[in-house]
Amino acid sequence: MSALILDGKALAKSREQQLHAAVKKFQDGGGLQPVLATILVGDDPSSATYVQMKVNACARVGMGSRFISLPASTTTDQLLEKIDQLNNDTEVCGILLQHPVPEQIDERACFDAIAIEKDVDGVTTQGFGLMAMGEPAFGSATPAGIMTLLKHYDVEISGKHAVVLGRSPILGKPMAAMLLNANATVTICHSRTQNLAALVAQADIVVGAVGQPELIKADWIKDGAVVVDAGYHAGGVGDIEKTGLQERVAALTPVPGGVGPMTINALISHTLESAQRLELSTVHPNTVE
């Protein structure tokens, strides 16, 4: 058996072509150019790289982007003021606050200050609650991208046992909720989980989201499982050890080229959807709740 490669890079490229056409159609119909505003606090080089990748993706699909760079000394109040300005800017359809922010900033307060209709990265507690309850909301970009990837490759989720390793509020927790909403039976594992290897061995779907290189060992994973690695670390390795997996599992994401491109794709897709909703609420204010 040779595993199906869940090629996020190829799928994102294909979806960008569709998004480009959709953005053009939206603007040709009188809509304003969708604009994603990205806030970067500090000068972390990895974060700056991620931001540039998002700016480039916006350009490829014909969307606008606005990059706001703030110094590492920025306070919570200063960041909240900037977010409030963007919330009230009618040209901005989506707001992304690049994670992580410097330690003196209350990141959760700043995430939650983003207007729900512009929360295209799915980071607000309100957005998470709506998504978890199956109500309309923008899901966190990485889990949303993973779900799109699994759907595209016809990976069966309903009735399967999914094990999510990691409980981040913007990755592990929303990933578990999305899988549960898709009728999977979900186990969430974390730093205090006991008998981790035994739990992973039960999984039909394994999602690595722990942020530690190759913490999840290949020999923990059963034959025929679907393996999704949301990690990326120096040397091009993920959270899951891949040795020998391609010959044993049903499907797996490459690192890089699997989950990462789908995260950005979900973000820009959400921004277009936000623009469409905002336009509809402006033209027909009684049609959108």
TrEMBL record:
Chain residues that bind NADP(+): G166, R167, S168
Pathway(s) this gene product operates in, as recorded in its UniProt entry: One-carbon metabolism; tetrahydrofolate interconversion
Functional note: Catalyzes the oxidation of 5,10-methylenetetrahydrofolate to 5,10-methenyltetrahydrofolate and then the hydrolysis of 5,10-methenyltetrahydrofolate to 10-formyltetrahydrofolate.
Family annotation (Pfam families): THF_DHG_CYH, THF_DHG_CYH_C
Domain Tetrahydrofolate dehydrogenase/cyclohydrolase catalytic: 6-121
Keywords: Amino-acid biosynthesis, Histidine biosynthesis, Hydrolase, Methionine biosynthesis, Multifunctional enzyme, NADP, One-carbon metabolism, Oxidoreductase, Purine biosynthesis
Gene Ontology MF term list: methenyltetrahydrofolate cyclohydrolase activity; methylenetetrahydrofolate dehydrogenase (NADP+) activity
Protein name per the record: Bifunctional protein FolD
Quaternary structure, from the entry: Homodimer.
Enzyme Commission code(s) on record: 1.5.1.5, 3.5.4.9
Gene Ontology biological process terms from the UniProt entry: L-histidine biosynthetic process; methionine biosynthetic process; purine nucleotide biosynthetic process; tetrahydrofolate interconversion
Protein family according to the UniProt entry: Belongs to the tetrahydrofolate dehydrogenase/cyclohydrolase family.
Upper taxonomic lineage: Bacteria, Pseudomonadati, Pseudomonadota, Gammaproteobacteria, Oceanospirillales
Signal peptide: none
